[in-house]
Write a structure and sequence with these properties.
By secondary structure, this protein is α/β, with parallel strands linked by helices. The protein has 19 helices and eleven strands. The strands form two sheets. Strands 7-6-5-4-3-11-10-9-8 form a nine-stranded parallel β-sheet. Strands 1-2 form a two-stranded antiparallel ribbon. Strand 10, helix 11 and strand 11 form a beta-alpha-beta unit. It is globular and about 70 Å long. It starts with a strand and ends in a 7-residue tail after the last helix.
Length: 513
């Protein structure tokens, strides 16, 4: 079967145009020689709703609509290591994503979904090791071996100190836990990315495109340095990393950002860790910019999302989430989520963006932007290195202050009208935003509280207690933690109980003032 491609007018389209072929170091033009000609990006829509059953229903609907990968959003108590009946969880159960207390909750999320045939991404950081262990146990209890579980766990706690705040432990024990995940995934032969180093949340907090690249890669260097110090092969770990970036509204700067990030990371891995070509790949997921969405004139967000998704695909992303137009108002409705997926499908099958590799390569403007972003990001990385690296900069609050200054400058530009936001400071109207009914969260929380309490009653208390004692002993020493967490998860220890044990040994992080 011929792979010849043509425009609608019958003009033949080559795989790539110009010199510097994709799939060769430093991968400015893409990590694969044929990119989307060989395989489209994964359409991975992020979803998570209150209960496991609701999340499962949304996943099934998205898969039926043509989605090719799953992405799980967890509620804040799960992210912060608290059970749904903890006092600090009050008012937050199920609001930002699905509530997962025990492995049985995660099993319900994936009920009827063949884990051996889907790729699953889990946006979880401080409690990532626990959720990965739960995913492994769900697979095992269904007869799916670890070697068939594909996906990505975010597991990027450094950006939590910088941008989101869902950290638990101080940096050093957190980095130990992350390194243990690296070791576990490698030893088990899992086709699983053990971390997704996230620039998305850094950008959403107000960083510029240059800061997003520099701070993300600085964090990635910190992870590889810790892996090396723990006796792992840093170059091999680099080959397992994935990244997560935002796509915002300036089409050409965003395309150039992705190209510059690939080139810069390839050089870092080769020069610093002696990585081979494939270990130098910067593979990344993209999400369109949630912070760019407006409650005013929400249908305008459909256009913003389409432009941002176009930037991601022109920039060579490996997977993509497109936001629902109503997300500035509430969790996306099923209609909005389906339209967001259809946006990707139009790009993939109707726009021609997948016909050739790096369509904007060779544009004088895009090439100049790529060079400039790379140079500015490299200068920031050099400055971070002189200060002792990412952890030192985060501990001093330097990343946080730089992002706050950029966010303030942007907001000033919006308020002064020099940065136009359609429907907000120009082309406005008096129409109120539509009302979207919210779920009955109090009823949902009561259901989840009852569920976790019933789970505690059913388990073997002696086995459960022994598993948590063994985890505490491992945390106090230097033994690998993932095997202990797996045993605790199988004994039906909860996210909150595992978090409580580790808090008791390591304490909690207190941010710089």
């Amino acid at each position: 079967m011929s792979d010849a491609r043509h425009t609608p007018s019958g003009v033949p389209v080559d795989v790539v145009y110009g010199p510097d072929p994709p799939g060769t170091f430093p991968f400015t033009r893409g990590v694969h020689p044929t990119m989307y000609r060989g395989r489209l990006w994964t359409m991975r829509q992020y979803a998570g709703f209150g209960t496991a059953e609701e999340t499962n229903a949304r996943f099934r609907a998205l898969l039926a609509a043509g989605q090719t990968g799953l992405s799980v959003a967890f509620d804040l108590p799960t992210q912060m290591g608290y059970d749904s009946d903890a006092p600090l969880a009050a008012g937050e159960v199920g609001r930002a994503g699905v509530a997962v207390d025990t492995v049985d909750d995660l099993a319900r999320v994936f009920e009827g979904i063949p884990l051996e045939r889907v790729s699953t991404s889990m946006t979880i950081n401080a409690t990532a090791a626990t959720l990965l262990a739960m995913y492994v146990v769900v697979g095992e209890e269904r007869g799916v071996p670890r070697t068939q579980l594909r996906g990505t766990i975010q597991n990027d706690v450094l950006k939590e100190y910088v941008a989101r705040g869902t950290y638990i432990y101080p940096p050093e024990p957190s980095l130990r836990l992350i390194t243990d995940v690296f070791r576990f995934v490698a030893e088990q032969g899992m086709p699983f990315n053990p971390i997704s180093v996230s620039g998305y949340h850094i950008r959403e907090a107000g960083a510029t495109a240059v800061q997003e690249v520099a701070f993300t890669l600085a964090n990635a260097i910190e992870y590889l340095d810790h892996a090396k110090a723990a006796g792992l092969d840093a170059a091999a770990v680099a080959g397992q990393l994935s990244f997560f970036f935002a796509a915002h509204n300036d089409l050409f700067e965003e395309v150039a950002k992705f190209r510059a990030a690939r080139r810069l990371w390839a050089t870092i891995v080769r020069d610093r860790y002696q990585g081979t070509d494939e270990q130098c790949w910067l593979r990344f997921h993209t999400q369109t910019g949630g912070s760019t969405l407006t409650a005013q004139q929400p249908l305008t967000n459909v256009v913003r999302v389409a432009v941002q998704a176009l930037a991601a695909t022109l920039g060579g992303t490996q997977s993509l989430h497109t936001n629902g137009y109503d997300e500035a108002l509430a969790l996306p409705t099923e209609a909005a989520a389906t339209l967001a997926l259809r946006t990707q499908q139009v790009l993939a099958y109707e726009s021609g963006v997948a016909q050739t590799v790096d369509p904007l390569g060779g544009s004088h403007y895009v090439e100049a932007l790529t060079d400039e972003i790379e140079q500015r990001a490299r200068a920031l990385l050099d400055e971070i290195a002189r200060g002792g690296g990412a952890v030192a900069a985060i501990t001093r609050g330097e990343f946080q202050e730089a992002i706050a200054r950029s966010a303030y400058a942007y907001q000033q530009a919006v308020e002064h009208g020099t940065q136009v936001v359609v429907g907000v400071n120009r082309f406005t109207d008096d129409a109120p935003p539509p009302e979207i009914p919210a779920p009955e969260y109090s009823q949902l929380a009561a259901q989840q509280v009852a569920r976790v309490r019933a789970a505690r009653e059913r388990r073997d208390r002696r086995v459960w207690r022994q598993s948590l004692d063994a985890l505490a002993d491992a945390a106090r020493g230097s033994a690998p933690l993932l095997p202990c967490i797996l045993v605790a998860v199988k004994a039906r220890a909860s996210v909150g109980e595992i978090g409580h044990v580790l808090r008791g040994v390591w304490g909690e992080f207190r941010p710089p003032v």
